[in-house]
Design a protein that fits this description.
The protein is of the alpha+beta class. The chain has one helix and four strands. It is elongated, with a radius of gyration of 15 Å. Belongs to the MLP family. This is Major latex protein. It holds the Pfam family Bet_v_1. InterPro entries: Bet_v_I/MLP, MLP-like, START-like_dom_sf.
Length: 87
């Protein structure tokens, strides 16, 4: 389990949500860490979720933040389930 304090920015017009790390465990390895979800409509009933990672390592020995992809996948599935139940 890790802790993070983040700033969440929602851009409803562009269908985007950004999560910017302000404090927490992730900043022990990364100088900056931000993930963004963009929802891209394909037609009236289908959208594509596109995640973008922006980060700066504290040093060259730090691995890419792939360990957080499970959280993102779970978040995407939960969001999809919630949105489908509302439609």
């Amino acid at each position: 389990m890790e802790q993070i304090k983040e700033k969440i920015d929602v851009d409803e017009e562009n269908k985007s949500v950004s999560f910017l790390a302000l404090e927490g465990d992730v900043l022990k390895q990364y100088k900056s860490y931000k993930i963004t979800l963009d929802v891209v409509p394909k037609d009236d009933r289908v959208c594509i979720a596109k995640w973008t990672w922006e980060y700066e390592k504290l040093n060259d020995d730090v691995p890419p933040p792939t360990r957080y992809t499970a959280f993102v996948a779970d978040y995407t599935r939960d969001l999809e389930t919630r949105l489908l139940s509302e439609s």
